[in-house]
Amino acid sequence: ALRLKYHERKDAFLEENIAVKDPFCIFRDWLTDALNTKEILEPNAAALATVDAQGKPSNRFMLVKEATAEGFTFFTNYGSRKAEAIAANANVAIAIYWMPLRRSVRIEGVAEKIPQAESLKYFHERPRASQIGAAASPQSQRISSRSHLDEIESSIKAKLGPEGEVPLPNWGGYLVKPQLIEFWQGQTDRLHDRIRFRRGPNVESEVDGKLVHGGENGWVYERLAP
């Protein structure tokens, strides 16, 4: 019985209304809409799915910190569960849902560490409390209690003093280079719009002008049934 009203047919997400057939251009437009929607408090929140060396999937929410034509960047402790999974299997998936807009973006690609200099730069752009928190947390590891974290944090603060620079811990960014980006827009009649962009070896040979269409910058796109 939990049914929200989505978009009406007149607001359908149509291929002819996409000015530039490049998924990064669409993503920037949709992100701008999300940023301008006051009900969306964290428009860069996303679910990241990984698969470990045993083939077991896991999923968690994180924040996408940069989206460029290269891909999507997020940051984490390099000893975390997600980092260990990426070391074993670099194929990942990201899902973003902007509920007030009834829009979702799915991303599939390969994650790779960004250069340490870039991680260091971003690390020191964060609030100092966040830097200390990253240094204090052995992310994904078992700990005895919350007070254990508080003790580590207090020790770091005492060692550095109020002005000391926080050293970069085992922490940094990943760039997810997408091979697939799908845009979903909900329709009230449940005939949702799904337009998927793909790129990779030989995908352009699939273009037939009916089911698969040529896009910009090596991308092809196609409409999927909901």
Automatic annotation (TrEMBL):
Residues 171-226 form the Pyridoxine 5'-phosphate oxidase dimerisation C-terminal domain. GO terms for biological process: pyridoxine biosynthetic process. GO terms for molecular function: FMN binding; pyridoxamine phosphate oxidase activity. SUPFAM superfamilies: FMN-binding split barrel. The keyword tRNA processing does not apply. It holds the Pfam family PNPOx_N. InterPro entries: Pyridox_Oxase, Pyridox_Oxase_CS, Pyridox_Oxase_N, Pyridoxamine_oxidase_dimer_C, Split_barrel_FMN-bd. It comes from the Eukaryota. Keywords: Flavoprotein, FMN, Oxidoreductase, Pyridoxine biosynthesis. Its EC number is 1.4.3.5. Residues 39-147 form the Pyridoxamine 5'-phosphate oxidase N-terminal domain. Its cofactor is FMN. Pathway: Cofactor metabolism; pyridoxal 5'-phosphate salvage; pyridoxal 5'-phosphate from pyridoxine 5'-phosphate: step 1/1; Cofactor metabolism; pyridoxal 5'-phosphate salvage; pyridoxal 5'-phosphate from pyridoxamine 5'-phosphate: step 1/1. Homodimer. Catalyzes the oxidation of either pyridoxine 5'-phosphate (PNP) or pyridoxamine 5'-phosphate (PMP) into pyridoxal 5'-phosphate (PLP). NCBIfam families: pdxH, PRK05679.1. Belongs to the pyridoxamine 5'-phosphate oxidase family. This is pyridoxal 5'-phosphate synthase. It comes from Drosophila rubida.
